[in-house]
Design a protein that fits this description.
Elements lengths: L1 H16 L1 H21 L8 E7 L4 H12 L3 E7 L5 H7 L4 E5 L3 H6 L5 E7 L3 H29 L15 E7 L6 H22 L4 H5 L3 H7 L3 H29 L8 H25 L3 H12 L2 H4 L11 H7 L3 H14 L8 H33 L1
Parallel strand pairs: 1-2, 1-3, 4-5
Antiparallel strand pairs: 3-4
Helix pairs in contact: 2-12, 3-6, 7-10, 7-11, 7-12, 7-15, 10-11, 11-12, 11-15, 11-16, 15-16
């Protein structure tokens, strides 16, 4: 028994001496607990952007807009007076719903012609779509009841008969993009993109770290004096293999009948930029941490919470600013936004330029840092070889 206790003590000592293992086992639960607490801390979404198309411009339509503005769940991103370029504006404003108040709305209400307010719900994100549409339904229901009572009172209808009278206007909700609110359509692309980012990071964590550990880096330096060439040699194989993964994902989409083939050429181009950006993060860590296991563990810490922070399911706008700052340096955040615009919302490539630019910035900064770190590693190994 004493020997068993000594062995247990020995194992605890090994654990405590391993800084990376100690950081993972103790630090990761604390880090993720705090991070997730702040991400979902509000417990509900507020200020979801919506667009109002007020074709009536009357006192009644103004009252409806005021009700929307007073609701904490939704926020009016724009008030338009026609439907020109409506789809483009909705993507630009990241609108969860578009409410269309028809021309002659007030007049038709007063003349009992039963007008219709149409709400187009963006169901690309099932969660925000449900919140926004419920808030709009509540506002329109309140407006409907108020208009009904006010109109009937003006007509001299007895109070006891008010609730038995006509409905002043009709409300229709139209789902757009993921019309069936299929949860697989909503979640599937985000998870697969996350998997691609994670396998790239974990694989590239070994790229230079394995060379340093196996003492083969000097051989690589002698065979390839160019630092850019060394970096290219490490990245290009994964770029090529990523093409295979991309084709596999397309086959999955065919097999499971997932309708994400709009703007496929543009999306494939952006996916290449995404892979390149992720690859530079991977080799940067691999150069800075010359140990395969430690480099892998560090990149696991980066990769694991990336889907939660990406804003794909829970909106970035609902997270604290400092969490948004972390999310914005993760390539997955920008790629998933581009994916949603191009493949789900049928947007144009020009509407994704800012996100593409962000991906390029992340990749460029990591490439420059990788180059500098590799330059000093090369200089050090050549000096020691003399």
């Amino acid at each position: 028994m004493r020997n068993f206790l000594l062995l247990l003590k020995r194992e605890f000592q090994f654990f405590w001496q391993n800084k990376i293992l100690r950081m993972l086992f103790i630090g990761a639960p604390i880090l993720y607990g705090v991070l997730l607490g702040y991400v979902y801390g509000k417990g509900k979404v507020t200020d979801l952007p919506i667009i109002i198309v007020d074709q009536d411009r009357t006192e009644m339509s103004a009252k409806a807009i005021q009700m929307f503005d007073d609701n904490e769940v939704i926020s009016i991103a724009a008030v338009l007076y026609d439907q020109n370029n409506l789809s483009e504006i909705a993507i630009e404003k990241e609108a969860n719903c578009v409410v269309i108040i028809p021309k002659g709305f007030q007049k038709m209400v007063f003349t009992k012609k039963y007008p219709e307010i149409i709400t187009i719900v963006n169901t690309a994100n099932v969660l925000t779509a449900n919140y926004a549409s419920s808030a709009i339904q509540l506002c329109l229901g309140t407006l409907k009841a108020g208009v009904q009572l006010e109109t009937l009172r003006k007509q001299g209808t007895p109070e006891k008969l008010l609730q038995e009278q006509y409905e002043p206007f009709k409300t229709t909700f139209l789902k757009k993009y993921n019309r069936s609110t299929n949860y697989m359509y909503f979640l599937w692309p985000g998870v697969l993109a996350t998997v691609l980012q994670q396998v790239l990071l974990l694989a590239l964590a070994l790229s230079f770290a394995s060379e340093f550990e196996n003492k083969t880096f000097i051989d690589l330096v002698k065979r390839s004096p160019s630092i850019i060439k060394m970096m290219a040699v490490k990245i290009i194989p994964y770029m090529i293999m990523s093409v295979g993964v991309w084709i596999l994902y397309l086959l999955f989409a065919f097999w499971f009948r997932i309708p994400f083939f709009t703007n496929l050429g543009a999306l494939t181009l952006v996916a290449g930029i995404f892979v390149l950006s992720v690859s530079f993060i991977g080799i940067l860590v691999s150069i800075l941490i010359p140990n395969q296991l430690k480099a892998t563990e560090i990149l696991m810490i980066i990769a694991t919470p990336s889907f939660i922070l990406s804003g794909f399911t829970w909106p970035l706008s609902q997270m604290p600013i400092w969490v948004q700052s972390i999310a914005n340096v993760i390539p997955l955040t920008h790629f998933l936004k581009i994916f949603r615009i191009l493949s789900v919302e049928n947007g144009t490539l020009s509407q994704t330029y800012q996100s593409i630019f962000n991906l390029i910035i992340i990749g460029t900064i990591c490439a420059i840092l990788s180059y500098i770190a590799l330059y000093f590693k090369k200089k050090s190994v050549l000096k020691s070889d003399l």
